[in-house]
Amino acid sequence: MKAPEDPDDLPGRIRVVASTTSIKCRAAHKAPWSRNRNMTKQVGIIGCGGIARAHVDGYRANHAEIVALHDVNAAGAEALKKQKSLNAALYSDLEDFLNHPGLEAISICTPPVAHEEAATRALRKNMPVLCEKPLAHSIESGKRLCEIAAASEAPLMVGFRHRFLPAINELKSRIDSGDIGNIIWFDNTFCAPAFGMDKTWFSKRSVAGGGTLMDTSIHSIDLFRYLFGDVIDQHCVWHRHFDDTDVEDASILTMKSLSGVLGTALASWHAGVAKCTIEVMGTKGRLLYDYEKPAALKFQPADGEWQCLETIPSNGFAEEIEVYFETIDGKRDLTCSAFDGLRSVEIALSVIRETIE
Ligand SMILES: NC(=O)c1ccc[n+]([C@@H]2O[C@H](COP(=O)([O-])OP(=O)(O)OC[C@H]3O[C@@H](n4cnc5c(N)ncnc54)[C@H](O)[C@@H]3O)[C@@H](O)[C@H]2O)c1
To answer: Which DSSP category does 352 fall into?
Structure first.
C-alpha cells in the first residue's frame, strides 16, 4: 500500500503533539500494514547478542519462525543460530537482510546508537519494527525516528517489556479500579551487582546515551508514564563509581506526573544485593511487586494485612511479542510507540544534561 501524502489523513489515526518537542508523532490504529493475519510470522533479528536470545524465545512462544539474522559481527549471528538451533539465513549486509524473501517483521537488538539506521531502513520499506529500549542514544536521533515512524505504513514499537508483565497488568488494573485510592507515589528500583558494565558499551555515552538512567531507569520512566500519564517535572542525583567511564552508574531520578503522582527510579550497577521492586502508595493502600518473587503481587489495604495476589511469572517478552503481532495484524492500537520511546529518552537525557553538562 502506498503511503498517503500526510499520514495524519489515515482513518483512525490519533495525532499526539510532543510537549517538549516541536515534532509530530502519533499512535496509529486500524493498521494499514496488516498482512498474512493467520499465518505463522516469518521474522528476523538485527543484533544477535544477549537480549536477542530473549526475543528468539518470545517469538517461539508466539509460533513465529526466525528466518533471518543480521549482525556486524558474523560470529555473533552464527553463535545465536547454533545456540537456539535456528533455521535462519545469516546476513552481514543490512539491506540483504531486509530483502530476505517473506520477511514480515523484525526486532532491533543492537546497542542504542545503531537503532536509528536499522529502524529507518526497515520502516522505509514498511517493515514492522520492534526496537529495543532505549529508542535512541540521543534526543535528536529519537526525534528523527519519530518522524520516520510517522511516515511509515508499518509500526515501530519500542521494547518496554515491563508493561506486559502479568503482575504489572494486575497492578495497573488495581490502580485503575481505585483499590488503593488516589496515588501518592511510585517507586521502581533496579539495583544489581553488574560490576563488569564498565567494560561494555553500556558505559559509553556515545553508544548508550547514558548509564543506569538509559539502561534500567528508562523502563521505570516508561512504567511511570504508562501508569500515571506524562511527566511534567524531573530531577536527578547520580554518581559514577567506575573509573574510566563517562556515564552515571548509580542514579536516583524523581518525577512528577501531570495528575500529581510523584515517582522515583533508583538504579545501580554496584549493589551488593539485587533489589528489583515496584511499590505504589495510595490513600487507601499500597501495592508491592518484587521481581525476585514473580508469582505474586502484594496488596495491603489501609489498616489491613498484606494479601498475595497470584500472578503468572514471566519476563514479559512473550507477551510483548504477542502485542507486537496483534498490532501488525491491526487487532489493537499501537502501544509503546516511537513517541513513548522519545519521551522516555527526553526525560532521562534532560536530567543527565542538566547535571553532567
Ligand atoms: N528489554 C530489556 O530488558 C533489555 C535488556 C538488555 C538489553 N536491552 C537492550 O537491547 C539492546 C541490545 O542489548 P544487548 O544486551 O543484547 O547487547 P549485546 O552487546 O549483548 O548485543 C548487541 C549485538 O548487536 C551487534 N551490533 C552492534 N552494532 C550493530 C549494528 N550496527 N548492526 C548490527 N548488529 C550490531 C553486536 O555485534 C552484538 O552482537 C540495547 O538497546 C539494550 O539496551 C534490553
So the answer is: H
pLDDT, one tens digit per residue, over 187-243 is 999 999 988 999 999 999 999 999 999 999 999 999 999 999 999 999 999 999 999
Ligand 1, atom 40, lies closest to the CA of 111
Which grid coordinates belong to 62? 508466539
**Beta strand pairing call for 129-132 and 14-17:** unpaired
State the residue range of the domain holding 134. Answer: 7-160+319-337
Task: List ligand 1's pocket residues with C-beta within 6 A.
Answer: 46-52, 70-73, 76, 109-112, 114, 132-133, 159, 161
* Ligand 1 mean position, distance from CA 52 (Å): 7
pTM to 2 decimal places: 0.91
Instruction: Establish if 175 belongs to a structural domain.
Output: yes
Q: Which of 240, 233, 200 lies closest to 356, judged by CA?
A: 240
Question: Over the range 127-164, which residues count as b (16 or more CB within 10 Å of their CB) and which as e?
Answer: bbbbbbbbbbbbbebbbbbbebbbebbbbbbbbbbbbb
Residues 43 and 105 in one domain: yes
Dihedral over alpha carbons 58, 51, 43, 155 (to 10 degrees): 90
* One-letter amino acid of 333: D
Within 10 A of 113 (CB to CB), how many other CB atoms are there? 18
Q: Are 38 and 77 within one domain?
A: yes
My answer on whether 137 and 225 are in the same domain is no
pLDDT of residue 195: 84
Give the atom of ligand 1 at the shortest distance from the alpha carbon of 117: 31
Please give the angle made by the CA atoms of 235, 136 and 206, to the nearest 5 degrees: 85
One-character DSSP codes across 156-210: EEEE-GGGG-HHHHHHHHHHHTTTT-SEEEEEEEEEEE-GGGGGSGGG-HHHHSS
**pLDDT tens sequence across 310-340:** 999 999 999 999 999 999 999 999 999 999 9
CB 315 within 8 A of CB 54: yes
Pure H helices in 10-73: 50-61
Residue in 60, 50, 46 with CA at minimum distance from that of residue 96: 46
